[in-house]
Amino acid sequence: MADIDSVLNKLLDEARSADEPAAVLKSPELKALYKQIGSIDPTERADYGRRLNDAKTELERVVAERLAEMTDESVATIDITAPFDKNSGRPDLLPTDQGSIHPLMQEVEKVSDIFGRMGFQIEQSRELDDQFHMFESLNFPKDHPARDDYDTFMTKEADANGEALIAPAHTSTMQYRTLKKYKHKLENGEPIAAIVPDRVFRNEDVDARHEHTFYQVEGIYVSRGVNAGMLIATLQKFLEEYYGKKLEVRVNPFYFPFTEPSFEFALSCPFCGGQNTDCKVCSGEGWIELLGCGMIHPNVLKHADIDPNEYTGFAFGCGIDRLVMMKYGIEDVRHFHSGKLDFLKQF
Ligand SMILES: [Zn+2]
Fold it and tell me: Is the pLDDT of residue 167 over 80?
């Protein structure tokens, strides 16, 4: 594991003599220091993040000095209305507006990459959908009480069926479309394998663990002879790849209208493995209830004109914010949408 001080000293030396000093701010060594945040012991992570940010500030200061030194003669002709760099007092010559990819989007890419390597296609959801895709196609008949479990946002305007439109409360709204879209594969003897990583919306009371807008990844797999063991193995493999370690998994029976049987899926705590009674991530229980999943209900397959006597499949829906929070020891889901640079710069 790379050490902050030795990397910093090397990059400072480079910056002081480089013709393009700002390049050190994009160096792989610096990126590697940020990347290893995930593997730092959670109790030391905040301290590590602080030291890393201090090192980066120091590096930026030296880069600014070097740039100022190099452009000394031309400074007199520089645009005096340009913003000033707070460290050097010189016009801001650093590419400070370069920005970075939001931590959630970085993780969505990682999740998509893992499933992509497992042979899953990536599909997009939408931000407004109809009641057929949100409910009927997923085996929630009209007036089904489970419809009330989703605190959905609805439009005042009605669609052609006279029903309000819904901001999707889960990515399962894409199951019907995905099954329809790839149905031809089954006829060619190939499986339907797709994930939908996208935003969902619920009328939640916002607190440290609940947001009205968050990310989910839906998974759908249909073929001949698919069984619950394949579902569990797929999720276990994905989670082990994502957290970079061996994990135990556990399933408990649950209820969803669109899967039968349905399960609540738990994994052994990636931080303490059940060894720490004070663990903040699992509250000392050693297990984390992570997601809902199950075998796709025959009615859902029938809706999409797939014969449930010939084909079976599994589906799962997993909150991405939650995965990321556990990976980096983030204690409050509201940080993601807060726009706080102190938080965002750690990724
Ligand atoms: Zn734990």
Answer: yes
41 burial via Cβ count (<10 Å: 0-12, 13-18, 19+) = exposed
Ligand 1 centre to CA of 244 (Å) is 16
**Structural domains of the chain, count:** 2
The Å distance, Cα 95 to ligand 1 centre, comes to 41
Do 71 and 122 lie in one domain? The reply is no
State the distance from the centre of ligand 1 to the C-alpha of 269, rounded, in angstroms. 5
> Measured in angstroms, how far is the CA atom of residue 287 from the centroid of ligand 1?
7
207-232 pLDDT, tens digit per residue, is 888 899 999 999 999 999 999 999 99
Residue 184, in any domain of the structure: yes
Same domain, 213 and 268: yes
* Cα 62 from Cα 60, distance rounded (Å): 6
- Classify burial at 296, counting beta carbons within 10 Å of its beta carbon; exposed 0-12, middle 13-18, buried 19 or more: buried
Residue 92 within a domain: no
C-alpha 243 to ligand 1 mean position (Å): 14
pLDDT in tens, 31-49: 888 888 888 888 888 888 8
Q: End-to-end CA distance of the chain, in Å? A: 17
36 Cα–ligand 1 center, Å:
20
Q: What is the distance in A from the centroid of ligand 1 to the CA of 298?
A: 37
Same domain, 53 and 125: no
Whole domain around residue 126: which residue ranges? 103-344
Distance 245 CA to ligand 1 centre (A): 14
pTM for this one?
0.70
